[in-house]
Design goal:
This protein is α+β, with helices and mostly antiparallel strands. It has ten helices and five strands, in the order βββαββααααααααα.
C-alpha cells in the first residue's frame, strides 16, 4: 500500500550500507522515521536539514518502519542553501525539532507552522540574525505553551529586557532588536530550558556550539 506524503527533513541516520532512516515531520504522522535507499549522489542534496519533500510511503505489514520512494523536492530553498548563516541556522532548528518532538506525536497545525517558518527564513534577504531566537519562541507557542514574559522570565536571568522585546514585538520588530552574538546564544539556551521544563524531557542540542561560533 502506498500513499503520497509531504514532509520536512529533521535528521538522517545511516543504518546499513545503502540505506538510511530519514527522520521526518509531517502533517499525518508528526515526527516519524522512514527507511530510504537513496543513490549516493542524491542523498546529500535531498536530505539537508529542513528540506521540504514529497514521496510515496510504502507500508510494511511486518514492521513499523515503513519506506519512502519516488522522493521529490517541493521547494529548492535557494535563499537558504546559498547562505552559510541560514544553513547553519537550519542545522540548529532541525535538531531542536528532532530533540523536542516525540516520535508519533501529532500536534495540530505544527507542520503548517514549520513549513511557513522555513519559507519565511528562505525569503528573508536581511535582518535575520535573530531568526532562530524568534523561531524557538514561536515553537513553544506552536506546541501549546504560549510563553508570556512572566512565564519565561525565571529562565532568562540578566537578559530579561531583550527577551521582553523579542516576545512582545511583532515578527518584523523582533528581527530588529539589537542583540550581540553572546546574548542571542544565551536567549536560545534560556528558551531551550523553558522547553525542557514544559516537555519534561532533556533537550541536548549539539549544533548550538556551531551557532556560538557563528555569532561569537
Amino acid at each position: 500500500m502506498t500513499d503520497s506524503l509531504e514532509f520536512i527533513v529533521l535528521a538522517t541516520t545511516k543504518v546499513r550500507e545503502g540505506a538510511i532512516v530519514v527522520h521526518t515531520l509531517s502533517r499525518e504522522y508528526g515526527r516519524r522515521g522512514f527507511i530510504v535507499r537513496p543513490g549516493k549522489k542524491a542523498a546529500a542534496a535531498l536530505f539537508l536539514p529542513l528540506n521540504i519533500l514529497e514521496a510515496d510511503v510504502v507500508e510494511n505489514p511486518r514492521s513499523e518502519l515503513w519506506s519512502l520512494k519516488g522522493i521529490q523536492t517541493l521547494d529548492s530553498l535557494s535563499g537558504i542553501r546559498s547562505n552559510i548563516h541560514k544553513n547553519t541556522m537550519t542545522l540548529f532548528l532541525s535538531e531542536v525539532l528532532f530533540r523536542t518532538l516525540r516520535e508519533g506525536a501529532v500536534e495540530d497545525g505544527l507542520y503548517e507552522w514549520c513549513v511557513g517558518s522555513i519559507l519565511t527564513l528562505n525569503a528573508l534577504e536581511a535582518d535575520y540574525s535573530n531568526y532562530h531566537v524568534r523561531f524557538l519562541l514561536e515553537l513553544a507557542g506552536a506546541l501549546g505553551f504560549r510563553p508570556t514574559f512572566q512565564d519565561i522570565a525565571p529562565f532568562v536571568a540578566e537578559h530579561a529586557p531583550q527577551m521582553r522585546l523579542m516576545l512582545q514585538g511583532s515578527f518584523s520588530e523582533s528581527m530588529l532588536v539589537p542583540l550581540t552574538g553572546p546574548v542571542r546564544n544565551s536567549l536560545c539556551e534560556s528558551i531551550l530550558k523553558y522547553l525542557e521544563y514544559h516537555t519534561d524531557q532533556p533537550i541536548r542540542i549539539k549544533s548550538l556550539s556551531v551557532l556560538r561560533e557563528l555569532y561569537a
